[in-house]
Structures are given as structure tokens and as C-alpha cells.
Amino acid sequence: MQRLSKICVAIALPLGLAGCPSDTDNETNADDTGADTTDGSASATDSASASASASASASASATDSASASATDSASATMTTTSVDTTDTDTDTGPPPGCVDGDDPNAPRMELAAEITADTTLTCDTVWVLTTATFVRGATLTLEPGTTVVGANGSALVIDVDAQINAAGTADAPIVLTSAQAKGERQRADWGGLVLLGTAVTNLPNGVGDAEGFADPPTYGGSDAAHDCGTLQYVRVEWAGFELVMDNELNGITFYTCGTDTTVDHVQSHMGSDDAMEFFGGAFDATYLILSGMADDALDVDLGFTGSFQYVVVHQDPGEPDGNHGLEWSNGPDNFTAEPLTSPTIANLTFVGQGEGGNAMKSIGYNIKQGATMAVYNSYFTNVTGPGATFQDQATLDVADGGIINEGVLWGTHGAFGHQGSGPYTWTDGEWADFLLGQDGVQDNVDLGLDGTWTAPNLKPAAGGPADGAGVTPGSLEATTYVGAVDPNGDDWTQAGWINWAID
Q1: 89-128: per-residue pLDDT in tens?
Q2: b/e map of 417-456 (b: 16 or more CB within 10 Å)?
Q3: Domains and CATH numbers, the chain
Q4: DSSP of 429-462
Q5: Cα–Cα separations (whole angstroms), residue 265 to 239, 276, 298, 489
Q6: Could you read off the pLDDT of 400-432 as tens digits, one per residue?
Q7: Best exposed site among 120, 214, 422, 480 by fewest CB in 10 Å?
């Protein structure tokens, strides 16, 4: 396995990558520009300072051949990083030995368009994506505290025969963000993180083409346990863009990742499309922060049957395209295709756009195309649009017994209703009665979450309406409270690995 450490001179943003060479590769650029990665020419005073890229065929550069050999030898065996499960309340900056990813003078190294050997990215260098970088037939490991930045049109893609091992810690999160300087970042600065697996989807042949690529990779198969890798204490920021309508990249996209995939303590922040989207597959994800996205927060499609617990969705009140907190879809062409999309979510806190928001967009959740779902112990407030909607008769046909809405507290929201033109066998009023009449549901509840968009307070008061209001959430971890944060426990949403800033 190659262990890639600091090798190239510091470069200032905007990117000037001539000093950080890469191999030429014909992989299609994620924004359909067709641009290839171009070799840079690194100057060197002697043969000992040979240039290197992060491609599979490259070795780490060093100041002399002896140190290069030592680096390769030391990294011959992959080590597993233990995960710190203790959150801290303040961000104290980069851990010892790691660079600050926002420092324009930090050393930087360009990643090549293809990685085909086990590779480790170290935290003493900022790693730069300039195109769609595909990991194939290998494991890409990111050390705790590592920063990866993406230039326009870039993305990081973990193909079906590869894995990502991104196990950060509470004090040393792994950050994938925009290559633009702090204060100049915008949504769609880069394409985000894509994980492809071979678990099950309900597409006709069990295989599909990934969205957002002119030459798309494929996903899907029959390996229900397929391990796409590990994401722990990871932030993905300012990512996602639309190639054409309904063909886009998100903050993080999971294609048929199976039950052996590990996802916890992950934030998708300020994305231009969905914060996270799931196409088929099944795994459990916990402790998620989905903030400032310009479309849906959790978008689930094509037979996904996994679960989510301890989730915060916080919409940006200044982003009118912030859409559904949850959108569950079965399949656009066959509403009865199996496996049915049937996610379970518990302990969600959804804070919508609030007063002045887009009444056609800021919606708690939308179910369509015959999908089923279960929502437990969750709180929705500041919902400018309808609290919850259905979109077609196929969804109503499976609603009785297929749509569970228990232990849910509703704060401010618009009327429950429908999207689409019908005709439907239920009125909007009957839909509202169906949801509000389930076990443990209360309407017009104020939990007193009085924070702001960039400094939220997501912890309900002890002894208040959320405390003791939980129901048994199916097979998920039992809690006695509603929402993502325990009224009587630590507020994990204020930990230092989370970023609420918008710069």
C-alpha cells in the first residue's frame, strides 16, 4: 500500500497545480467537460526529489531516496484507525501533525484521475481533486484530520470493486470540501463523494448507471452485504451539481451499498442538490447532520431498505430550493418493483426554512411511487410548506400498514396534503387524519429550539414535551425521547467535528 505524505510545495488558492504533478488519464470529467488530467512538471534540484502523484502507479516523493524507502516500508501493512466515540464541544484546530485545510500556505498535492492500488492520504497535506478521481480495485484510506478539496467539475468516486476507509475522530474529522478559499465557497463548487456497490436494487435487471457522469459507472447486483467502506466523523461540504435535469451529483451518493457498510457521525453541508441520496442497498446510518442543502436532505430510491437514527436536518432559510426533509421513492417506471423502498428513521429533528421560506419547497417529508416507510420519535418544525405529502395513488395503496408515523411531534407546518394531480381515493384531510392519528403523535408542539441557522439549539428542555415521549422504534435503538438529541444528555450536535458556518 502506498502511503502518501507531504511532497509538494505550498500553493495558494485559486489553484496553481503546476508544482503538483499527476498522471494523464482519460476518465471523463464529472461536469461533462471531457477534460483530462494534465501532467504537471515539478522542478527538482536532483534526482532525489523526484515528482509523484497520488495515482495508483506513483510512489510518495521524499527529500531523498532513503526517506522514500522508509515511507514505503512503513506503510506496507494497512492499519485500522480506532474511532473516538467521545464528542468534544469545541474545535481546537487541526490535531498535532495535521495541516489546517483552510490555510492557503499548507502543502498540497493533486490526486490523479485513477487510483488502482491501496493508498493512504495523510493529514500533513491538503489533497486536491481536479477531475473525477475513480478508486478501482483498491482501498483508499484517509487518516484522521485529513482534508481533501475539490476543484470545479471534480468528484471522488469509490467504484464497486473498491472501498473507502475514512475513519476520523471527534477531534480529528476528515473533511472533503471546496478548493475555493474560505469566504469564497459556493454550492456546486465540486461534485462530492460517490460510493458504488453491488447490493440489491429494484431496477429491472438489478443494475443501473450512476447519475452525474457523461460516461457513468454502473452499480447493483446480488451481494446484500456489499461493503462500500467506512465513513466516520466525516464532513462533505459545498458539493454536488446538476449535469442535466434529474441527473446530478449530491453531497454524498450511495449506490447499492450493503449491510457491511459503516456510516456514522457524518455531515453533508451546503450542497447544491441532495445532502445524501441512496439508490437501493441496505445499511444503517447514525448521527447524521444534513444542513443547508439546496434540495432534499435524505433522498431514498430504488429499493433501499436500510435505517437512519439520530439525524438532524437543518434547512438554510436563505435557500429557497431547500426541498423535502425526507423523500422516499420506489421507482419511476414500476411502482410495485421489489424490493420496495422501505427505510426506517428514528430520532430525527427537522428544522425547515421557517417564516418567509418557500411554501412549495420546505416540506417535512414526501412519499411517492409506492414507497413504504417508518418514522419514529421525530420532530418537525419551521416547516414552511406541508408537513407531509403523498404524490400518487400507488403510495396510498400501501399506506395502511406500510406507512408508520409514530411518536412524532409536529411543530409549525403547513397543511398535510398531496403533490401531483390525482385522482386519489383519499382527501388531504383523510391523509392528515391517518398520520396524526397514529401512536404517540402530537400536533402544534413547541420544543423551544431557539437557536439560529448558523448557531442552532437542537436540544429540547429536560422535562419538556420531547422528554419521555418516545415509542419503541421498531428494531432500532430504543429511546425515551423525541428528536435527535436527548434532553437529559450531552448535545452531540455542538461537537467540534460539525461545521455550522457558511463560509
Answers
A1: 445 678 899 999 999 999 999 999 999 999 999 999 999 9
A2: bbbeeeebebeeeebbebbbebebbeeebebebeeebeeb
A3: 108-494 (2.160.20)
A4: HHHHHHHHTSTT-BSS--------SSS----PPT
A5: 18, 13, 15, 17
A6: 999 999 999 999 999 999 998 889 999 999 999
A7: 422
